[in-house]
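A quick aside before the break. I want you to see a complete sequence-to-structure record at least once, exactly as it would be stored in a machine-readable document. Don't worry about memorizing anything.
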Amino acid sequence: MVVELRDGSFIPSKGKPLKFTVIDRQGNTKTCIYKHGDDLLQDAMCVAVMKEMNHIFKEEHVDAEVVLYE
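That is the input. The structure line, written in tokens, reads:
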């Protein structure tokens, strides 16, 4: 259960998603992004492709990494 909401700000992009931090009763924090009207399936597919790219880079010993936000 969320007991506190902190650090709300809009991310500077076309859709203006809202980024905020929630705190639960144990004091654990989680950063969240709220998006409205965007194609979230497309976002999920992009993240899956980037994870696969990292896997391929590692297998092929390529010194590169795609950094993800989750």
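Two observations worth writing down. Residues 21 and 64 are 30 Å apart (CA to CA). The chain has a mean pLDDT of 85. We'll return to this after the break.
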